[in-house]
Each structure stands twice: as C-alpha cells, then as structure tokens.
Amino acid sequence: MDPTAVLLQKVLLYGVLPLWMLAGFGDWLCHRVQHIERSAGLEESLLHWAMLAELGIAIGAALLLQINAAVLCLLAAAALAHELTTWWDLSYAASRRRIAVPEQLVHSVQHALPWAALLLLIVIHRDQALAAVGLGSAEADWRWLWKQPPLSPGVLVVIGVATGVLVLLPFAEELRRCRLARRQPD
Hints:
The protein has 186 residues and is mainly alpha-helical. It has helices spanning 3-34, 41-64, 69-94, 101-124, 126-132, 153-183.
C-alpha cells in the first residue's frame, strides 16, 4: 500500500474514529443537561439508537472486513441511512425542545465525520470505488472477506472498550432515563 494510503488509514483509525466517539459522548452530555426525557423523550432516544446501529454496522465492517466494492457500497448505504435518520431525529427533536448551540456544534461534527470517513476510504481504495460504479480498470470485488492483515486484537479491544464507555453505556443510560420518565405520571 502506498504511504499516503497508510497515513490516511492512521488518520481514520487514530483521529476520525476517536473524534467521532467523543462527539457521540458530547451529544449524550447535551441531552443529559437538557433532560430530553422530559421533552422529546423515548422517541428521540430510539432514533439515537437507530443511528448508532446504522453507523455501528459500517464501522464494524470497515474495521473487520477487506475494503472492496461491496464494503464501500455498504458504507455508503449506512452513511445515507444515518443522514436520513439524522434529519428525522432533528425534525422530531426541534419540534419538542430547544437544540442549544453546543449541541448543534456537536451535531455538525457527527454529521460530517461519516462522510469524511467514507471519502477517505474511497481515496484509499479508489480502484474498488471506481469499479463499484463501472469505471476504472479494476474489477469490482463483491465478496465479504476478513481484513488482511487484520487489525491487532489490542487495537480492536481498545476500540470496543472506548465505544462501550463513550457511546453505548451513555446512550443506554439515556434510553433508561427516557423509559423511566415515560412511566412516571406528569
């Protein structure tokens, strides 16, 4: 792999991915401060889980699978699904609560990073990106293959723990708060 591609992979793994997780944690903090359980509630929290699932599948695929035409198409579909769910989420939330400036700033990071990551992967794997749309000289690879060489187990464990601590646990706590608030009479 050429040195630029290696550098871009490091930017994705050690820059974009951690920033994305921190933005998710920041978003949760904004929701916590605003007590969304009292306004947009369970419905907004469930939309957050839909977005986590959309991007979780994409991130898992990018970390574990060989990036080829099939995976790039999966990532593009996940980014588009996340975009549509984000619009739904923001429309829903904005009609029920004020979205403060800090939260809007966090959302801008969350909004841009899936597309930035996809574009970086397209640059790194441009032959498969072009082949996926019938261009270039390479043949599109539509197989689902494990990444070769795989990421080290240590890196995967750190990513898993960080995801749990910065994203999954906070949003599980949010879902719990929203479910409890729904059960309590006004």
